[in-house]
Automatic annotation (TrEMBL):
Pfam families, A to Z: CsrA
Origin species: Ureibacillus terrenus
Record-given protein name: Translational regulator CsrA
Protein family: Belongs to the CsrA/RsmA family.
Keyword terms, alphabetized: Bacterial flagellum biogenesis, Cytoplasm, Repressor, RNA-binding, Translation regulation
Listed GO MF terms: mRNA 5'-UTR binding
Record gene name: csrA
Assembly and interaction partners: Homodimer; the beta-strands of each monomer intercalate to form a hydrophobic core, while the alpha-helices form wings that extend away from the core.
GO cellular component terms attached to this protein's record: cytosol
């Protein structure tokens, strides 16, 4: 993991087409802006984790139903 120190107004580039802009630092919160092509999905980590857990639960339930129907 690369760890960088940035101040408001400073940027970080990922490749040639994704720019991360530090817009504000207030207490223990940092606000960032992300400029990226429309085809790049940007999702908050906690939302991504919730979707993953929900999908895993749905697969397990589907497998349970399938097992009951095969008996």
């Amino acid at each position: 993991m690369l760890v960088l120190t940035r101040k408001p107004g400073e940027t970080i580039w990922i490749g040639d087409d994704i720019e991360i802009v530090i817009t504000e630092v207030k207490g223990d919160q940092v606000k960032i802006g992300i400029r990226a092509p429309k085809h790049v999905d940007i999702v908050r980590g906690e939302l991504r984790q919730a979707v993953l857990e929900s999908n895993t639960e749905a697969v397990v339930k589907s497998l349970d139903v399938l097992k009951k129907n095969l008996k």
